[in-house]
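fold-stage: in
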Amino acid sequence: MAEQKSIEEYQDDLMNLWDKRRMGSKLDPKEWDGFYTSVVITISRCYRCKSLLSQCPEPAKNYYDSFFSEVIFRRLEGKDNELTRPNALCIWFYNYISSICKSKSSSNKKPVVDINLTLSKKIFKETGLDKIVDYQKWEDFYIKFMTIISNCHQLKSLIKKCPKEPTDYYNDFLIEYINSRSKGKEIVLIKSNILCEWFYNYLFEVCNLTEPPQPFVLPKDEKGEIDLEGIELDLEKTEKSAKAFLKQHKDWVSLYLKFHFCADKNKRETLKNISILENIASHHHKARQLGCVSQKKWEVDTKAYKKTYLGQWLLSLNIDIKEENRNEIYFAFAILCSKALNSKITLSTK
């Protein structure tokens, strides 16, 4: 009976035999058999591959065999034949079966995520991460990042409305995420639900899926004075509160309000443009934090909106965020916007 080995021992054999073969040494039949066994045991344990294999028409062993003969041999004989770690085989195997298997639901359906390691290396160098992060850590991050955003369930129908291929937006968003999060330190992946929300906001902006917000206009009576009829709100108190709100928060809040949330649609700047001009990091996160992703955000998710800066401000005015208080909410925003639009803060002209 053959001796049973641990997965670590099989992977040690894999690395040793791989290095021996790529350095030009020949393997004897027993070593080839051990090499094949080590490869199969390693790729058969890849969690992500198991799900994809279930969509393939043939038994898994057929794909193990063809992967060994078509990919492993080609890699060993090629110039880029270094194997830095055993689990790199999982990436190669995933890409291999993604390219040859037909989905049960559709013969033309592409894999959920396109893991392009050539593009991964390009982004790694262009963003300067090669100076601060080990490549293997980056590769793990890249795969996790792409897997998360390509599986955000609420985005699958939304991204179809965008003109480019989904992978273009995945990679553009990744680069923006890196530029706003690395700051010369090791890059960290945030929670998947938050990442999906950031990507959701990103798509809305870059694909122009939202209508420019309408400016909040204070209702005036025949004499040109603010008309408070039907509004249960203290005008003087609200004005003082609006001034205090702008004063207590950092400049980016006033910038977002003046040039985006409150601006006339013909003068409105995108959040991305504001962030570039003013060097504001994580601008989608900040927009969500402020509550200015959409003027109607409070109608969609009142519970979440109460946690935003604008939501907290409304609550401080004793305005509960719900549909029946629509007039009070609109009026309060109109007061705040009048103060923001008349502030002296300006955008840089880089």
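fold-stage: in (second)
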Amino acid sequence: MGKALAISNAWTHIICAEELRGHAHLGPASTHLILAVEEAVKARVLHKWPALIEVMTVRQLEDLLYTHPVRHEIAQLDSMPRALRAEIALWTVDHPDQELNRATLTRLFVRHPEAFPVTWAKNAEVERQRGMRVDWDGRVWRSPKEITESHYSRRYGRCLEFVVRTAALVGTLDEIKDELAETGWEIDQEEW
């Protein structure tokens, strides 16, 4: 029950994001995309719950459900396609005496636009807040209006794919297929 509610709420955030985008409110729209991913991660955690309770402490389980940074890290890892994971593994085999640094990871991640960027786990919380509030960053005032269409569009594609893949994982893809088709996304369930 919880996973269906979580993925349904993730989908609601996607719809809210697009509605806000239609009114040129890209900051709040971008925030809703991050919220969608957080809810999708919650659905993934609840989907795996029976196995997780066997190997994790109560505190660890609570962190999975209630801690944003943990959910952002899960999203980043879960968004990585097998090909990217293989490239990372091969890089470490090919460079046994080198540490896999951020610049190298970035070069590998860029080849896979469906994966959240290397900075996702670190920046998602700040970006979520940035999309909703005017804030002083110590040098200048920041506004949600600074979010550009380009920034939103890149985030939208990744977030939508993550939510759709999660819906397929937890068995609720059929519930959103018609809405996806209305927006131009033809989903062949065999691919997901």
